[in-house]
TrEMBL record:
Positions of the UniProt region annotated as Disordered: 52-73
Name of the protein in question: peptidoglycan lytic exotransglycosylase
InterPro entries: 3D_dom, MltA, MltA_B, RlpA-like_sf
The organism of origin for this protein: Tepidicella xavieri
EC assignment: 4.2.2.n1
PANTHER family hit by this protein: MEMBRANE-BOUND LYTIC MUREIN TRANSGLYCOSYLASE A
Gene3D superfamilies, sorted: Barwin-like endoglucanases (2.40.240.50), RlpA-like domain (2.40.40.10)
Length: 441
């Protein structure tokens, strides 16, 4: 799976009625991200293998929703400074509560060195907004991490399960008693970083090619070897030997080659597939492998030649529409190709995102991608990101990684799937502070 930073430009302010519709969408998204799942909470370990780290992606090219023909229109951008975490009218806990006083009276442990980062111990009162988060919203993501926990973190998974139905006050008290917050910073002391967003595309597809759907998505070829370069993207499109090795490996066909590139950049997605008999159903494509070549940004390729002024997907698509004879040249500037595997999408699986690099399903609004050399998978992380697009203060789980997620204070915020998730993810590119929670000694 792969992340994508998005910096969609908003060219005009939406109307009042449009704002109302957008805020309704945000409300729906919050309910999706925060609802308690009606089916029994998972308390065991699933027999699922962790996926490889998501392929590299560029730090500057944004992602747009599916190109035409797509069933839904491009979503309306959110108005600026949408608060995702101010929906509790009163704090759940405050410094006056016994647990808070107890936690902040304990001696601080020494700093921790974590590869690319240094963790400085802090008091709970130093976490902006702590005590106001709806912690029950993160509990399903936390239980997911307990399916594949790191040894130190797994020791507390039994207590995580016990508190899955606890009250908000009890959940906050347990976290403060059993976990120590650490400010995540670079070795040079820098504690400010970057938050971006990513999502799971939903694209229409056909099982067989037709006059419109001519772009294939492939399963990994049997001759692919890890760590060894295979054919480039251009060779896959032109070399008879490469084409012969991929014959019969087509999973589905898309109408727009840029949609295929989008899916490869995101590393996973949902396809609404039309079968030859006309039946339609939704499946998930998960990252399986890549061809071993470095990622090259097509947006950067266009910018370097002065053919676009902004590295946005809108600009890339507009250029492609005006220069159809050069689309292949643009695509071939990126030699990397991603291969997928098809997974059925049950009603249960559809409630969560794809599996992240930790090997567990991602939870909208509560899963982040991190630099695994800075923060171990399964770590609870308090994030504070004050706009300009969204105000985010909440507890999330480090469950994924990505080629452009590099550095101590760096995170990609998983927003879900489809248009509303795109709208949120596209607008998030803003300052970030992070506090990792680690079990108390």
């Amino acid at each position: 799976m792969v992340h994508q930073m998005m910096n969609k430009k908003i060219n005009s302010a939406p109307s009042a009625s449009s704002n109302n519709r957008v805020m309704e969408r945000v409300t729906v998204w919050l309910r999706l991200a925060g609802r308690r799942v009606a089916w029994p909470l998972i308390v065991g370990t699933l027999a699922a293998c962790a996926t490889p780290p998501r392929p590299e992606t560029p730090p500057t090219v944004p992602v747009t929703p599916p190109a035409q023909p797509a069933p839904a229109p491009v979503p309306t951008p959110l108005p600026p400074t949408v608060s995702l975490d101010e929906h509790w009218p009163q704090p759940v806990v405050t410094p006056e509560h016994d647990e808070w006083r107890w936690a902040d009276s304990q001696p601080l442990p020494p700093p921790l060195q974590r590869g690319k980062s240094v963790w400085q111990p802090v008091r709970w009162s130093e976490l902006p907004g702590w005590g106001r988060d709806a912690l029950h919203e993160v509990w399903n993501a936390w239980l997911r991490s307990c399916e594949r926990p790191a040894p130190v973190l797994g020791a507390l998974c039994a207590e995580v399960r016990q508190h899955s139905i606890a009250s908000p006050q009890e959940q906050h008290a347990w976290v403060m008693r059993r976990w120590q917050p650490y400010r995540v910073q670079a070795p040079d002391g820098q504690a400010q970083g970057l938050l971006t967003g990513y999502y799971e595309p939903v694209l229409p597809a056909r099982r067989q090619p037709d006059a419109v759907h001519q772009t294939p998505l492939y399963a990994a070829p049997p001759t692919l070897r890890a760590g060894q370069p295979w054919f480039t993207r251009e060779q896959i499109a032109t070399d008879p030997v490469a084409q012969a090795q991929l014959r019969g490996r087509e999973i589905a066909w898309l109408a727009d080659p840029l949609d295929a590139l989008l899916l490869q950049i995101q590393g996973s997605g949902r396809l609404v597939i039309t079968e030859p008999d006309g039946r339609q159903h939704t499946v998930r494509l998960a990252f399986a492998a890549h061809n071993g070549h470095p990622y090259r940004s097509v947006g950067r390729w266009l910018l370097d030649r002065g053919w676009i002024r902004e590295g946005t997907w809108e600009a890339i698509r507009a250029w492609a529409a005006e220069n159809p004879q050069r689309v292949d040249e643009m695509l071939w500037s990126n030699p990397r190709t991603v291969f997928f595997r098809e997974e059925p999408l049950s009603e249960l699986d559809a409630q969560f995102g794809p599996r992240g690099a930790q090997g567990v399903a991602l939870t909208p609004g509560r899963s982040i991608a991190v630099d695994r050399d800075s923060i171990p998978y399964g770590t609870p992380v308090w994030i504070h990101s004050p706009g300009p697009f969204a105000h985010v203060r909440r507890l999330v789980m480090a469950q994924d990684t990505g080629g452009a997620i590099i550095g101590a204070v760096r995170a990609d915020f998983f927003t879900g799937w489809g248009d509303e998730a795109y709208t949120l993810a596209a607008g998030i590119k803003q300052p970030l502070q992070m506090w990792a929670l680690w079990p108390r000694p």
